[in-house]
Amino acid sequence: MLELRLVQGNLLKKVLESIKDLVTDANFDCSSSGFSLQAMDSSHVALVALLLRAEGFEHYRCDRNLSLGMNVANMAKMLKCAGNDDIITLKADDGSDTITFMFESPNQDKISDFEMKLMDIDSEHLGIPEAEYHAIVKMPSAEFAKICRDLSTFGDTVVISVTKDGVKFFISGDTGNGNIVLKQNTTVDKPEESIAIEMNEPVSLTFALRYMNSFTKATPLSNTVTLSLSSELPVVVEYKIAEMGYIRFYLAPKIEEDENES
């Protein structure tokens, strides 16, 4: 028996909105510790890891580990039926091939429930190794989203470089080049607007902007975003989800072969 009751139902809506363009079908794993997901995008370039800890739910019951295969787009459509202030409950019986979503308005005058068929999805669990990163940048998530959006008008790959001077986003496209440099700034009155950079050694990596723009769909979940960078490792773009967990996007850097040949 599985029963999860989330008072901040709009958190789940925002999570689904942020991953539905990347992931088609996915297994949501439920255990006694929480509700999680790990899935590759269809082109096997990016990985999404989600964790909602059990303590963040008002009521959390999961009698045994369950893997619920769901179509993410259908799940997002279903959650669109919930109001932003609704309490969302997910229920599934052991051995059942359906999951029920229940939406309750805050004053209990409207209760909707929808049943969705579960799917059998083959997916291997990828061990994500704990890594020491060369540089970690923490910045306002809206600022990061704007940078990715602005730069994508010039080209499709961005070079992210972290040095002692700050973090630089560089793009070179047919119409010209662009540079955006952010300097460390932690003395702001509003901590959510600060830019913090931890650097053990300088790092410069190239990424596909299309994916970065897709990751920024998680901006509504958190005021800040953390970028963890290391040469030859995927970047980790992390958004914290209230006090209950996180969504992390992993993207492998592009290897610039044409530079060596010219």
Automatic annotation (TrEMBL):
It comes from the Eukaryota. Belongs to the PCNA family. The keyword DNA-binding applies. This is DNA sliding clamp PCNA. This protein is an auxiliary protein of DNA polymerase delta and is involved in the control of eukaryotic DNA replication by increasing the polymerase's processibility during elongation of the leading strand. This protein is an auxiliary protein of DNA polymerase delta and is involved in the control of eukaryotic DNA replication by increasing the polymerase's processivity during elongation of the leading strand. GO terms for cellular component: PCNA complex. Keywords: DNA replication, DNA-binding, Nucleus. Pfam families: PCNA_C (PF02747), PCNA_N (PF00705). It is found in: Nucleus. Residues 1-125 form the Proliferating cell nuclear antigen PCNA N-terminal domain. GO terms for biological process: leading strand elongation; mismatch repair; regulation of DNA replication; translesion synthesis. It comes from Saponaria officinalis (Common soapwort). One of its GO terms (molecular function) is DNA binding. Residues 127-254 form the Proliferating cell nuclear antigen PCNA C-terminal domain.
